[in-house]
Specification:
about 180 residues; alpha+beta; Aminopeptidase; 4 helices; about 30% helix
C-alpha cells in the first residue's frame, strides 16, 4: 500500500520502523517532523500499531498513517484504523493533529480520505468516538458525514454507513463513487 494523497496532505502508511522511531522520539534520516510532533496521541497510535503487528501481523491498509503536509513533507499528526473490517463490515477510526496545525481543515481532509479508503477496501461502515468536550473532533466527524448514533457518560459515538452518499468537500452531499 502506497501513500494516500489529498490536495494538501500525504497519508503515509506507518511501518514498524516508523513506529519505533516515533516511540524513541528520534526522526530517521528522511523524516521531517513539525515542531510538537509526535504528540502523545501519536505515541499511543504507534504503540497500538506495534502491538497489532506483533500479535496479528502487519494490518496493511487497515493500519496507521502519518499525516504529512504535501508542501514541505513535515509530519503533523496521525490517523488510522483500529483494525480490519469486523464481522459487521465496520471499521473504527482515530486521528489527531499537533496543536499548531489544528483549525486549518487538515483533520477533515485526512479523515475524508481515510473514509474513502475504507469504502474502496470494502468496509460497509466507519465508526469513531470522541469525548463530550472535544467539539472540534465532533465537527470533523460531522463534516465527513459521520452521524452521532449514541453517547454515554464519557464518549459520543459516530457512524457512517458507506452505502450513504459521500459528502462533498464543501459539506454538501455528492453521489458516492
Amino acid at each position: 500500500m502506497g501513500d494516500v494523497l489529498t490536495p494538501r496532505l500525504v497519508l503515509h502508511p506507518m511501518s514498524t520502523a516508523d513506529a519505533e522511531r516515533l516511540l524513541a522520539r528520534t526522526p530517521g534520516a528522511g523524516d521531517r517532523w513539525a515542531a510538537g510532533y509526535p504528540a502523545e496521541v501519536d505515541l499511543v497510535g504507534a504503540r497500538n500499531f506495534l502491538t497489532t503487528c506483533t500479535e496479528q501481523g502487519d494490518p496493511g491498509p487497515f493500519g496507521s498513517y502519518e499525516i504529512r503536509r504535501r508542501a514541505d513533507g513535515a509530519a503533523i499528526g496521525g490517523l488510522g484504523f483500529h483494525g480490519p473490517v469486523d464481522e459487521e463490515g465496520s471499521v473504527t477510526i482515530g486521528y489527531g493533529l499537533i496543536p499548531s496545525e489544528r483549525g486549518r481543515g487538515y483533520a477533515t481532509e485526512a479523515l475524508r480520505a481515510l473514509v474513502e479508503l475504507a469504502r474502496e477496501l470494502g468496509a460497509r461502515s466507519v465508526r469513531g468516538d470522541t469525548s463530550h468536550d472535544n467539539v472540534a473532533s465532533q465537527h470533523v466527524m460531522a463534516a465527513v458525514g459521520l452521524r452521532l448514533v449514541a453517547e454515554d457518560d464519557q464518549l459520543k459515538y459516530y457512524e457512517l454507513a458507506l452505502t450513504d452518499p459521500a459528502p462533498a468537500a464543501d459539506g454538501a452531499v455528492a453521489e458516492a463513487r
